[in-house]
Amino acid sequence: MSEVVTGRDAEVQERLDKEAIREALMRYCRGVDRLDAEIISSVYHPDAHDDHAGRIFTGETVGQGLVDWMTEIMDVTSHNITTSNIEVNGATAGSEAYTTSMHLQTVDGVQRTLLAVARYVDRFEKRNAEWKIISRIVVPEFTGWLEMQRLEFATRARRDKSDPSYGVLGS
């Protein structure tokens, strides 16, 4: 028999659930920017569905599918979550997370940068004490190409496990 949580304990549990969902959203961004299918997959249930502004990814292939797509069309990406609104209802939750991302792309030898502002409209389910996405719809707000000249630095971001973040975060 399951125990019903009430009062202060219910408030604490709701905050813990919301924080777990926010952590999943942040982990997704890191996984996409580092082209790490394992990290991306850790955010989705095996039976998940992701509608990425018309490009559909499903099931256990969501992580690798996103990595393959990003590798094919982008040289560098940087995804950031800004505002997140989360409503928890037992073992399910709805989330609307605003995202701003930059995508560097080379076309015919010319680099260009896409600024994309969108919302991740997600359904989360808590299974085995873990919150993961079961359904995602990416809703673009606006996108546009920016003219930028790329600067070089001694330390560069890497889109794989040689990125400096793996040295401090482990995975």
Topology:
Layout (H helix, E strand, L loop, with lengths): L6 H27 L3 H5 L2 E9 L2 E4 L3 H12 L2 E14 L2 E16 L2 E18 L2 E17 L17 H6 L2
Parallel strand pairs: 1-6
Antiparallel strand pairs: 1-2, 3-4, 4-5, 5-6
Short description:
By secondary structure, this protein is of the alpha+beta class.
Task: Encode the helix/strand succession as letters.
Answer: HHEEHEEEEH
- Rg calculated over all Cα atoms: 18 Å
Mean pLDDT: 93
What percentage of the residues does DSSP assign to strands (E)? over 45%
Q: Could you say which overall geometry the principal axes of the C-alpha atoms support?
A: globular
Q: Treating each run of at least 4 consecutive H or I residues as one helix, how many helices?
A: 4
Which runs of at least 5 residues are low in confidence (pLDDT < 50)?
none
What is the name of the CATH class? Alpha Beta
Q: What's the structural domain tally?
A: 1
Q: Major sheet, described briefly?
A: 6 strands, mixed
Explain how this protein is built.
With 171 residues, this protein is an alpha+beta fold. It has a single domain, classed as Nuclear Transport Factor 2, Chain: A (Roll). The protein is 29% helix and 46% strand. The protein has 4 helices and 6 strands; from the N terminus they run ααββαββββα. Strands 2-1-6-5-4-3 form a 6-stranded mixed β-sheet. The protein is globular. The chain starts with 6 loop residues before the first helix and ends with a helix.
